């Protein structure tokens, strides 16, 4: 029975692991008011974090879609002959950032113009006899952010009359997107830290009440790891409990929004991520954040009571 | 068992509690530590199980160099030392059985051995039939017996008792002393700080008197020596 080894055994027995989980769960039950307070704090934060995440990820998705749509149109000189047009195409292909080069005849250009005008487009039908437009190359870049620099390169090519990529609009879109991403990220990080702070404070109060328990555990020779485990379990459970309501709220809200997106907004470019799998991925993420907050909060606050 | 040489202890607030202690205690001894309040008894006891570190001097307990133990080794030292306090230090929400079993859970004893051993020590302190009670349902003497049971449940070589009868009436105190004497008879070293003149003068053991941070008297089968 008495141990002869000089280092405390580090391998944990299965019984001990069970004991830690039992103790952690019991503590949740014994300190029911503190549990409610902590779970409430996690719940509130996770609802906010979850809503922000859903918003952020979708904004990002919309922004990606918009950026995908950005293309450069290089209009060819009206005087250029077939061989020269060909040469422009080859030169475009040679630009490293370019991912797609597509030739569009002036007839096709007119057709797409007419279509984009809708009802009023029929007026332009008259021009089919004498098309005033130029042939064009439609160019896409691998990274949409390279659009402006690629456009400048294309302008320098012989026989390119004009380059159009919606200069002003595109630049504003890119700036807006990068701001939105950074601000969203900062908000989410801020919220997560607030939650950790709240939880570690609540757990600190329950630990204060259990100081005696920790003191006695140390007195009878418990290792710090042994003392920490039930608190770890407790934090984990608090986090998981705290993420149930947020997941329910966000999944159902997202379900409602995705099903009614057409009536809720008038913009065609708003295309949300599919409910399945996005809602489930988001739930998993919320659960993970909740568990992480709980564990970190409790381990942080138990640490200072463990000094030998 | 215990060997202290040139031990000094000054607390961070400037209070000097111990002023050069040299003492050796052999395995199986029963030692009373007496002296006025604030003389350094508690500090002396705390140094043995590394509740405090000395400012200077060497302490060897159970062949372990106590002041230089790494924090990972401290639990190992404490598993060989049982400690009993004046205020029992029981966990109020746990039953008597759970309070005692606690000390065995910590050293990862198997459930079967745990049950057997806990009932064994509860029998030894005469509380076998109160295993399911919680501390508040017990008298002071019974609570102290539970804390003794917890202290000895993992067969420590050394039992430290800091005024174990301080909160108890005389009759109950004799009960506690009888149990401690039995534990000592089975080979466990006992160090007991006390203010009880009657106990020291009746159950004759080695007496170490500490005053002003120094051992002023150390006699076998000694007297309490102070007017109570």
From TrEMBL, chain B:
Predominant location category: membrane
Domain of life: Bacteria
Recorded GO CC terms: plasma membrane
Domain ABC transporter: start-end pairs: 2-228
Matches recorded under PROSITE patterns: ABC_TRANSPORTER_1, ABC_TRANSPORTER_2
Gene3D superfamilies, sorted: P-loop containing nucleotide triphosphate hydrolases
GO biological process: cell division
Membrane-protein topology: Peripheral membrane protein
Keywords annotated in UniProt: ATP-binding, Cell cycle, Cell division, Cell membrane, Membrane, Nucleotide-binding, Transport
Pfam family, one: ABC_tran
Molecular-function GO term, any one: ATP binding
Subcellular location: Cell membrane
NCBIfam families: FtsE (TIGR02673)
Protein purpose: Part of the ABC transporter FtsEX involved in cellular division.
Quaternary structure and interacting proteins, as annotated: Homodimer. Forms a membrane-associated complex with FtsX.
Family: Belongs to the ABC transporter superfamily.
Name of the molecule in the record: Cell division ATP-binding protein FtsE
